[in-house]
Amino acid sequence: MMINWLWVFLGGGIGSMCRFALAQKLNYTGQEYVIFPYGTLLANILSCFVLGILIEKQFSHQLTENYRLLLITGFCGGFSTFSTFSYEIYIYMQKGQLLPGLGYTFLSLVSGIAAIIIGIKLYQIFL
């Protein structure tokens, strides 16, 4: 039982570090946010894509429980950023930037769903 916690902890830590690196590279210019949170968007899209591949792998019984905990629950959970996404939408609302906020929301949801579908389909074709 304790080993399960370790797998989630390890995957979550790696996913969180990857998300942090993307945010540092794409969301900030020195001490300020950029106009659009590209790092958060990319982290969420990539996480959905990886999740699509891993879920299909799990459905075909090629993903062990340990790898599921490490990669799906841990890595994808740490790499995706729903709380950050929600905060960024809040910032758009606070600044009165309704249209960019709605655009970001729509783009995030549509691209996330598309990335999961693409991940599943690519897994079915190539793996």
Can you summarize the main beta sheet?
2 strands, antiparallel
Shape: globular
Total tally of structural domains = 1
Cα-atom radius of gyration: 16 Å
Compute the average pLDDT: 94
Tally of separate helices = 5
Task: Show unreliable segments.
Answer: none
Number of strands: 2
Q: What's the helix-strand series?
A: HEEHHHH
Beta-strand fraction estimate:
under 5%
Structural class: mainly alpha
Proportion in helices: over 70%
Characteristics:
3% strand, 127 residues
SSE layout and pairing:
Elements (H helix, E strand, L loop, with lengths): L1 H25 L1 E2 L2 E2 L4 H22 L5 H15 L2 H13 L3 H29 L1
Antiparallel strand pairs: 1-2
Helix pairs in contact: 1-2, 1-3, 2-3, 2-5, 4-5
Describe the fold and architecture:
It is globular, with a radius of gyration of 16 Å. The chain contains 5 helices and 2 strands; from the N terminus they run αββαααα. The longest helix has 29 residues, at 98-126. Helix content is 82%, strand content 3%. The mean pLDDT is 94. A two-stranded antiparallel sheet has the order 1-2. It is mainly α and 127 residues long. It has one domain (2-126). It has helices at 2-26, 38-59, 65-79, 82-94, 98-126, and strands spanning 28-29, 32-33.
